[in-house]
Input
Amino acid sequence: MQLRYAFRVYPDAGQRIALARAFGCARVVFNDAIRAREDARRVGLPFPTVAVLSRRLITEAKQTAERAWLSEVSAVVLQQSLRDAETAYRTFFASLQGTRKGPKVGAPRFKSRKDARQSVRFTANARWSVTGSGRLCLPKIGAVKVKWSRTLPATPTSVTVIKDAAGRYFASFVVDTDPAADQARMPETDSTVGIDLGLTHFAVLSDGAKIDSPRFLRRAEKKLKKAQRELSRKQKGSKNRAKARLKVARAHAKVADARREFHHQLSTKLISENQGIAVEDLSVKGLARTRLAKSVHDAGWSSFVGMLAYKAQRYGRTLVKVDRFEPTSQTCSTCGTVDGPKPLHVREWTCAACGTVHDRDHNAAINVKQAAGLAASACGAPVRPGAIPAQREETGCHGLPTDARAA
Output
């Protein structure tokens, strides 16, 4: 499977200028491609192909005075920008036809120079390399200093250089991993576990363990409010406003990094200790429309379950998602009696049939495990998630913003 390994990079002043130039050229080519296809649609002509757009928007455009500066960046960066536009249109048409899984997506939109996130991608034919001293050598940019938090398991197929809203730079490598080698790294175990996700505790396991919710956003709320208040008082377009915006972005990035690191550490621990894992398929979007919205987003359940999914596939574990309508909080895990719904403030209850006193979350975790069919056998049904595209990063790689999920 393919994974993304992200590392912090520290370009110098000249390299930051070169990267800004590459970001701008890639954005212009992407916008030109969108404009060319929209113009063709308005007059009823067929969409120009990628080959036609490449010749018109890159090769021929470099010969004009208006686009001569496209020659200052690597041609691979511009070609990849065209491929991104093509992928965006394919995704849009697949969504219209109903052949794409997931929520509906709209037509590709123009990119702005004011976008918080900027990125360029270098494939193998761009001839980028890692020097003997550990620097990342990029064409027409130079050798950039990299903070290597760990070694890459294989030779990367591409690298994406990203600048996030907090002004940080990252190099995201796409690596093809060996499933057999990954599974050999995991210890043999017959343990299975059911997980009940919540807000009072982030997770309660069927073996009785309770993982406290760190509440990263709640703990940083005071600092975030102060930074946002300072931003709102700055004059629009001023340098002080730009500095205040950067301060807010860095505060939010710190919260996101801490939450992501917590999710990675916990998911890796659960995967390494258990052969079978059961979790409830929660409707996070629905819960995010309630009065608990801020706490639900702060917990980040979807991100955590996504990590469990791709790590289970990578290391040969079994992950089972239990239907969200399963009455796990209403059923007695001892005798199976359904005792009816209970308000959230009821944390313990006694079964009317057998008299067993239940901890609400622990009982739900046991029911999740039983509903998944993992109670008697470690392996259970050979359930596996679908094809998992390149993920963002694992524990030890901080702060990579949202990236393209396909390599």
Notes: The longest strand covers residues 2-10.
